[in-house]
Amino acid sequence: MDILVIGIAGGTGSGKTTLTNRLKERFGKDISVIRHDDYYRSQDDISFEERVKTNYDHPDSFETDLLIEHLKQLKNGHSIECPVYSFSEHTRTKDTRKIDPTKVIIVEGILIFQNPELLNMLDIRIFVDTDPDVRILRRILRDVKERGRSLDSVVTQYLATVKPMHEQFVEPSKRNADIIVLEGGYNLVALDMIIQRIQGHVEATNE
Questions:
Q1: Which of 55, 110, 123, 192 is most buried by its number of CB atoms within 10 A?
Q2: What is the pLDDT of residue 104?
Q3: Is 113:177 a contact under the CB 8 Å cutoff?
Q4: Across 28-53, average pLDDT
Q5: Cα dihedral 178/201/118/50 (nearest 10)
Q6: Which residues contact 199 (CB under 8 A, 6 or more apart)?
Q7: Please, which residues have CB within 8 angstroms of residue 186's CB and are 6 or more apart in sequence?
Q8: How many CA atoms lie within 13 A of 23 on its CB side?
Q9: Angstrom distances, CA of residue 36 to CA of 62, 74, 131, 158
Q10: pLDDT band at residue 5, thresholds of 50, 70 and 90?
Q11: Which CATH architecture has domain 4-206?
């Protein structure tokens, strides 16, 4: 199978997931999604109090080597068992999620353009670029509503690690992008162009 691998990167709250979801909704079973967030390292060996202190925006907090190995397996036509991460517990669950090889694979995450080996596996590299004020507001709403965080904890984490790590790792990785999309899935012109590119690949593999 000729598999097209698309990387969607960008800062926290930039709109990566919205863009990814819209593409998944459009192409259904022809797209599989691997989220870098699911490859946060397991922290079962430390207390919850210690897990809270982890810098989750540094490359070392991810088991990126496992993601790379899984992506290689998918490109070779094999299914994988993807880890499932719990944001409320700050560690992996005992569950896994089966992902099958498809015509298009989307890899999504804040730091996927930072790792050279992973970067070289991406056929199309899309960076979602959104105003920092918008991103922090989206993050606050998401973490408070969906992940059970307090407002104080979200703001503290943003200032302590999210913002400095964005400036150190995420923002510089933007230069590795083929396409920079403002506002992610809300940018309908860019979304339509990406859809056309994927549509062409899907139709070609059907011939």
A1: 110
A2: 98
A3: yes
A4: 92
A5: 100
A6: 27
A7: 15, 18
A8: 34
A9: 8, 15, 22, 19
A10: very high
A11: 3-Layer(aba) Sandwich (3.40)
Whole-number Å distance between alpha carbons of 42 and 91 = 5
Tokens standing for residue 167: 């400036």
Span between the terminal Cα atoms of the chain, in Å: 12
- In sequence order, the 6+-apart residues with CB closer than 8 A to the CB of 108 are 7, 8, 9, 16, 17, 20, 33, 34, 35, 36
The two structure tokens encoding residue 107: 């890899």
Tell me the per-residue pLDDT of 97-153, one tens digit each, with 9 for 90 and over: 999 999 999 999 999 999 999 999 999 999 999 888 888 888 888 888 877 788 888
How many other CB atoms are found less than 10 A from the CB of residue 83?
22
Q: Quote the CA–CA distance of 60 and 168 in Å, as a whole number.
A: 13
Partners of 82 in the β-ladder: 97
76-91 pLDDT per residue, tens:
999 999 999 998 888 8
Residue 71: what are its φ and ψ, rounded to 5°? -65, -40
